[in-house]
Amino acid sequence: MTRDDILKKIQIKFGGRIRKIFDRSPKRIYCDIDKNDIPEVVRFVFMDLGARFSIASGVDTPDGIEILYHFSFDRLGLVFSLRTILDGRNPEIESITPLMKGAEWIEREIHELLGVEFKNHPNMKPLLLPDDWPKDKFPLRRDFVQDIDKE
Amino acid sequence: MSHKVSIPIGPYHPLQEEPEFYQLIVEGEQVVDIDVRIGWNHRGIEKLAEAKSFDQVIFLVERICGICSTSHPLASVQAIEDIDGIKVPERALYIRTIVAELERLHSHLLWVGLAGHFLGYNTVFMWGWKYREPILDIFEAITGNRNHYGMMKVGGVRRDIDEADIPWIIKQLDTLLPAIEMFRGAVLDDPVLHARLKGVGVLTRQDAIDYSALGPTARASGLAIDVRRDEPYAAYDRVKWNVVTQESGDVFAKTMVRILEMAESVEIVKQCLERLPKGEIDAKVKDISPGEGIGRHEAPRGEVFHYVRSDGSNSPSRYKVRAPTYMNFPTFKTTVIGETIADATIILAAIDPCYCCTERMTVVDNKTKKMVFTPYDLIKLSQEKTHRLLHRFGINDHPHTMTGTA
Amino acid sequence: MGLKLTALTKSLWIFHLSTGSCNNCDIEILDCLTPRYDVERFGIVLVGSIRHADVLLVTGTGTRMAAKVLKKLYEQAPKPCLVVSVGGCSCGQVIFRGGYNTPKPIDQIIPVDAYIPGCPPKPEAIIAGIIKLIEKVKAKK
Predict the structure, then answer these.
(1) A13, B86, B216, B263: which has the highest count of C-beta atoms within 10 A?
(2) pLDDT tens, B152-203?
(3) CA A127/CA A112 separation, integer angstroms
(4) How far is the CA of C24 from the CAs of B34, B65, B75, B110, in angstroms?
(5) What ipTM was assigned to the predicted interfaces of this complex?
(6) Can you give the pLDDT at residue B398?
(7) Is residue C125 within 8 Å of residue C116, measured between CB atoms?
(8) To the nearest whole percent, how much of chain B has pLDDT over 90?
C-alpha cells in the first residue's frame, strides 16, 4: 500500500466528511475531521488500514481545544495525524479506548491536563496529578494560573 | 485513604508507604489484577517547555530520562527541524547516530545488569555496569559528560569528534564485543535462565498491536517495527545494520533482542566512525517559522515521539512528548495477570521501564485488601525462585550468583 | 551528640530516595557501588529502611507527591540524620523551577547538610561530597 493508496482509500470512504487534508511533506499528512467522525475514522485507520497508534496530543488554541491523533504507517515511515477541534468551554469527545487499548492512559492524561471529557472511557481515574489537585484547574490550558499554593 | 505504616523497601530505589506506583492484586501466589498510579516523576515538562526558547527546550527534554538521555533531544531537534524542513549537514548526521547508538549500548547494558539483579545473578549486575564504564568514558571524551551530553542542536550537533580520538574510541568498543558475546552465551546456555524466562510474561503479537507496543518489547513479539529503518533519519540509511526480532514474546525473547541489538549498535558506531565525512556540523539556524513538526527516534526502549507547534516566536506554543514506556507499560497488565508474584519483577523489568518504575510495585491480597509484599520483598521472591531452580538443577555453586547479597 | 556523630564518621549507612528525577543521579549513586568506584570498601552501605540510616541521600525535584513522602521519611529517621542533596535538581530544581508540580526545592522541605551539585555529579564528585560531609561532622566535635 503506497502513500497515495492511503489517501485515496480515505477519500473514497469518507469523502465530504473530511474537512481538509494537509499533505505537508513526504512523511507527514494532517487530516482535519469533525469530532463526531473521529471514532469511525480511527477505526478505519487503525483496523482496516493497519496503522499503529502513536499518541494523541491536545492543544489549547484560541479556536478551541484541538486534539491530534497521530498514527504511524511503519512500512512507509509516514505519520498520519487526524485533527479535530472541540469547544473550548465544554470540550468533550467520544473515547477511542474501546477501539484501541493503547489509548487509555493517553486520554486520561489529556483529561487531567486539559479538561477534555472522554465519553464512555472505561477507566477515567487520575493518572499524573496528585489526588488533592483542584479538579477545575488544568495545567496545559492557556488560562491556567499557577496559584495553587497560595490558596 | 488508609495510612499504611512504612515497611522497609529498597535498597536501590526505596519508596515508602501508600504512594504505590502500582499494586498487584493477588489471590495466593497468582496475580489477578493490577492497578496503576503514576505521578511521582511528573514534573510538568510540557508546560515548562512553553516558557523556554527552542534552544533551552532541548536541554529541558534531555532531563526527562537519564538513561535515554540523548533520545529526547534527538527527537526534539528533528521535530523542530521538521517545521521548516531544515537540512542538517552530513557530518552532524553521523555524529548524531554515533551518540544515539552509544546510548543504546549503555542502556541495554544497564538493563542486563538490573535484570541480573532481579533474578539473583548479582555478578551479572556488576559485570553489566562495569562494561558500561568504557562507554561512559567515550561519552566523556566526545561530549564532556558521562550522561546528559548536550550534543543535539537544531540544525546539527554542538560538538565535533576529534579525528585523533577515533582509533581510541574503536579500541574501547572492541573491549565490549567479548562481553556481549559472554552475555549472549550465558543466557543461551543457562538452564536456570531458560526455566525462569522462557514462557514467562508472554506478550502475544496481537496484544502488541492492540496496545501499540514499541521497541524491543514489540520486536520480541515478532513485530518488526524500528523507526531507524521505517523512517530513516540521522545516518541510519547510510550504514548496514539489522532489525532484531524474536517470535516468542516472552521475557527470554526480550532479553535476546536487547543482547543482539548491542552487537548491532557496536557495528553501526564503527561504520559511522570509519565513514565520518568531513565538513560542517551546524546549519546555523536563525529562526523557526510558524507551523508544526513531528520528530521521532528509536530510543533503547522504543519510539520516542515529539510534537511541536511554533507561532513564529522564539518559544514553542505547544510541546508534546511521548516516551516509549508510556505505550509499553500498559502491556504489563496482559503479561502479568495469571503469573506468579515471584515472576512479577522480571516481567515488568522486561519492558525496560524507566528505572524507577520497577521499584514501586506492591502486592495487595484480593480478599483482605491488605498489602502483603513490598517492592523489596518482590525482588527477594524473584531471587529466591532462582535459588530453588539452581537447587533443582543440582547447581550449588553457580558463578553468577552471590548468596547473601541483596 | 558527640558519641553518635563520631560513630557516623566511620561507616556510613545510607538511605536513598528519589523525589521525581530523571534518575541519572540515582544511577550515578548506584555506580559508586560498582567495581570501578566500589564505595563498599569504605564501609558505605545502602540500606533498605530509613530507621537504619545515618545519611539520607536525596535526588530529584521535589514533586508534590514525592515531597510528602520525603517529609514523612525525614520525620521517621532516627536523629541525627544527615541529609545530602545530590544533583542539580535537589540542590535547587534548576530548569524545573517554576513548574506547576514542583513547588518547593528540597531544602525548603527538610534541612540539608551537604549539597553535591552536578547534572549528574560523577561518582568521584559524590564520593568527594560525602568526604566533605564527614570532615564537616568531624570539625563539629
Answers:
(1) B216
(2) 999 999 999 999 999 999 999 999 999 999 989 988 888 888 999 999 999 9
(3) 8
(4) 28, 7, 19, 12
(5) 0.94
(6) 65
(7) yes
(8) 57
Residue written as cell 547447581? Answer: B395
Output the 3-class SS for chain C: CHHHHHHHCCCCEEEEEECCCCCHHHHHHHHCCCCCCCHHHHCCEECCCHHHCCEEEEECCCCHHHHHHHHHHHHHCCCCCEEEEECHHHHHCHHHCCCCCCCCCHHHCCCCCEEECCCCCCHHHHHHHHHHHHHHHHHHC
Q: Is the predicted pLDDT of residue B7 greater than 90, yes or no? A: no
pLDDT of residue B27 exceeding 70, the answer is yes
Neighbouring CB atoms inside 10 A of B87's CB total 10
Q: What is the nearest CA distance from C59 to chain B, expressed in angstroms? A: 11
Question: Residue B401 has what pLDDT?
Answer: 58
In DSSP terms, C18 is beta-bridged to C59
Q: Mean of the pLDDT values across residues A121-146? A: 88
Look at residues B336, B337, B267, B328 and name the one whose alpha carbon lies nearest to residue B299: B328
Residue of A nearest to C102 (CA): A149
Chain B positions in Cβ-Cβ contact with residue C17 (cut-off 8 Å): 14-15
> What confidence tier does C35 reach under pLDDT thresholds 50, 70, 90?
confident
Q: How confident is residue B404, by pLDDT bands cut at 50, 70 and 90?
A: very low
Q: SS3 for A106?
A: helix
Instruction: Specify the pairing of strand B22-27 against strand B361-365.
Output: parallel
User: Nearest residue on chain B to A55, judged by CA atoms?
Assistant: B322
Instruction: Name every residue whose Cβ is closer than 8 Å to that of residue B260 and which is 6 or more positions away in sequence.
Output: B184, B244
- Is the pLDDT assigned to residue B8 strictly greater than 80? no
Asked if B301 contacts B68 with a C-beta cutoff of 8 angstroms, the reply is: yes
The CA distance from A136 to the nearest CA of chain B, in Å, is: 17
A149's CB contacts (< 8 A; 6+ apart) are: C103
Residues A145/A147/A151/B1 CA torsion (nearest 10 deg): 90
**Domains of chain B, with CATH numbers?**
45-326 (1.10.645.10)
Give SS3 for B366: coil
Question: Is C18's pLDDT higher than 90?
Answer: no
Domain boundaries, chain A: 3-141
The predicted pLDDT at position C7 comes to 59
Contact criterion met (CB < 8 Å) for A129 and C103: no
> With contact defined as beta carbons under 8 Å apart, do B61 and B321 qualify?
yes
CA-nearest of B268, B309, B280, B281 to B104 is: B268
Q: 548496514: which residue's cell?
A: B240
Residue B2 pLDDT class (50, 70, 90 cuts):
very low
**pTM, entire model:** 0.91
| Angle, helices C123-140/C24-31, rounded to nearest 10 degrees | 80
Q: How many Å apart are CA C47 and CA B107, to the nearest integer?
A: 25
A147 at interface of C, judged by CB pairs closer than 8 A: no
The x, y and z cell numbers of residue B101, run together, are 547508538
B395 close to C (CB below 8 A):
no
- For chain C, domains (ranges, CATH) are 2-140 (3.40.50.12280)
A72 contacts on B by Cβ (under 8 Å): 230, 296, 303
Rg from Cα positions in chain C? 14
**pLDDT above 60: residue B359:** no
- Locate the chain A residue with the closest alpha carbon to B311: A61
